[in-house]
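Batch job 17 of 40 flagged for manual review because the log was empty.
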Amino acid sequence: MPYIKQNVDNSAHRPPKAGPLQGVKVVFSAVQVAGPFGPHLMAEWGADVIWLESVKNGGDPLRNYRQAEADHRNDRSMALDIFSPEGMEIFKKLIAEADIFLTSGKGPSFIRRGITDEFLWAINPKLVIARISGYGQEDAHPDYLNRACFDGIAQAMSGWMSQNGMPGGPPIPGYPYVGDLFTAVYGCAATLAALTRARETGKGESIDLAMTEILMRLETYNIVDYLNDGIIYDRPGDKDPVQMAVGVYKTKDGFLLMNVLGVPQLKQFFTDIGLEELYGTEEYPETMSYIPMLSSKAPLIAQKIDEYMLTKTNAEHEAYFDSIKVACSPVLGFPDLPDHPQYTARKMFVEWETMKGENYKAVNIVPRFKVNPPQIWRAMPTYGYDNETILEDLGYTDEQIAEFYEKNIINHE
């Protein structure tokens, strides 16, 4: 796997000109995952991302987790007391130069402390503002406005968790952290969409991202079928709740996920499982491209599929399904991934040196950008690592920076 050596000179404090977002400046004040992960993606894609951490308690508590190194590579860290008079002046200068400001917390936490949209736009009319919370900003119901929300809470509250688990069993949350990560990715997309418009018009945007609402929007057919037809699907477990022959199946030597979809594929599959007489009947016409889970012969079909899948190994099924154009994959574990020929060809795993001198491995930057390829230019910064450079670029002198440290306006590890 490629090796990325951590820089030690001053160039380690300023991002290189690489990636499609080079020239975009992002400032964010958020902790854990739902808030920081979206700006982090922008940092991977070339934006100059300044991670504002509290001067108290060593910054973001996510630093205590192993994943932080992967989730904050390419970020720049500044430990700043935003709400002190001097810190607020520094914050205003950062906002004046920023394209995007993102924050997260319990409801309108920054708004309550005076950092309203109007306050920010008075400094920078073109600023795109993104605010992430569990239930929304100022128009949320009073009972929920200031309520704490984490990933699992959002899954439970949105109905998402009710759709996951084994048939007849208890609801199960989705991992890793779909509420946090979907919110972050959705926020990244919405923020960049707003930035496109702001650059055209010179007028900024404010985006209200509620974790519960984003999960609800992504429930697709589950919630649509209920709202329109009153259908509530049983928790599907390892199978698709709508289509048969779609899901995880036990084979001779492991587990394989397949998706039998398409008219010619379905015709062949009915033959393979020994039920060719069903194909072309009124319930399973020749124009059908999938097998409905609610059809009358579903129990028999399910039995035949299970029996058929046990007759071959994963490799045998994979070779055959490839020949009839049925999508499938063995269920790979993490030990199968680093040396897998597909991921080796795509250079999906990288290694670099952390700022503490340790080797660290993670997944490479995705997606691929051909014309403006991004790069991993630095490890996760230590707490407050970029204070001096950021302040120098804002026009502060060495004497002023020293005074800020003395007053604990800024801090570092």
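Reviewer: the log was empty due to a logging misconfiguration, but the result itself is present. The chain has a mean pLDDT of 92. Unflagging and moving on to job 18.
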